[in-house]
Amino acid sequence: MSLLDQMTNAYEAWMPQQLREWYTADQRRELAVKEMRPQAEHTADVDFGAGFRDHLKPLGGPDMSDPLAWANRRVEFADGHWCVAGIRFLGLDPEKPFVHVVATSVPPQLALLDAYAEQLHREFADFGPLAIRFELPNPPEDADIDQWIIAGLVSGLRRKPRRPQHERVRLTPADPAETAGYADEVLGNVAKQLPEVRTWTEAATLEQLQRCADTGALREIEVDGQRAGIIAAARDDANGMRGFQVYEFLLDDNARGRGLAPAAMQLLCDVLPAQTGDTLWGRCTWAMGRR
């Protein structure tokens, strides 16, 4: 069995229940292959590792010359299980390294992961990773989660009753360049109140915002006619799903905590060029204060 097939099988086993409800078995297989193919190609790939290393070097990246250290690697565990994992840097920030577990034969059970995480920390110790990231499906309620992937079918989100604040909220087209500066400013204000936000949160890049604009989903949030935030999404089939990623969702200081975010999200769904089976998804750190 090829590495891609092994990774695809493992990835399918870790798919959350929602994806099993939204997609047929054939669709899930197709999405899993699409997700795993580039990861398999980057495993033990000298050229990829060298390119990644050289890209990080002028940014102050770690002094690790071996290109294979930068590529995905297959790690064998003592009990016969395995994983494919690679070093990552949030926002390409050399101060924020973490290990991404791309696929693993280990069953998706929280209680089993600590020992494997310890070995992976040793495996990537030269990079000093701040975290070992497993994307655990349907975690138990008492799990300590640092980041969620939140998703819903666009069709289902559109059918939900409008929120009470709906009439006060309006979305208007925004300019990518102007939005980039505004997003940095708002995120900076959030970080003053919640410094831990800066660890795993980053503002969208200008390139990402341009993609959102091209999608027709880069929007300024207005509340009672006044600018109150930004919301942006673009097509990104990832994490075993088809659909759109929320690249930016920020509310100003005077708009947070007032129940406005759900109304803005519903309005975003209205402008997405979604097809059957498309989701709206995004990553949310526990205390990033964007809602």
Residues in helix, %: 25-40%
Mean pLDDT: 92
Strand order, sheet with most strands: 5-10-9-8-7-6
Question: What is the number of independent domains?
Answer: 2
Low-confidence stretches: 287-291
The computed structural class is alpha+beta
Question: How much β-strand is present in the residues?
Answer: 15-25%
Give me the count of strands: 10
Supply the number of helical segments.
Answer: 11
SSE pattern: HHHHHEEEHEEHEHHHEEEHE
Morphology call: globular
Largest sheet: 6 strands, mixed
Q: How far apart are the first and last residues' alpha carbons, in Å?
A: 45 Å
Any idea what the radius of gyration is? 20 Å
Question: Which helices and strands appear, and what pairs or packs with what?
Answer:
Elements: H1 3-13, H2 17-22, H3 25-41, H4 46-56, H5 67-70, E1 73-76, E2 82-89, E3 97-104, H6 113-123, E4 132-133, E5 147-153, H7 154-159, E6 169-173, H8 176-193, H9 197-200, H10 206-215, E7 218-223, E8 226-235, E9 242-251, H11 261-271, E10 278-285
Helix pairs in contact: 1-3, 8-10
InterPro entries: Acyl_CoA_acyltransferase (IPR016181)
Protein name: N-acetyltransferase domain-containing protein
Structure description:
- The structure is a single chain.
- This protein has 291 residues and is an alpha+beta fold.
- The chain has two domains: 3-145, no CATH class; 151-288, Aminopeptidase.
- The protein contains eleven helices and ten strands.
- The strands form two sheets. The protein has a six-stranded mixed beta sheet with strand order 5-10-9-8-7-6, sandwiched between helices. The protein has a four-stranded mixed beta sheet with strand order 1-2-3-4.
- Helix 1 packs across helix 3 (25-41) and helix 8 crosses helix 10 (206-215).
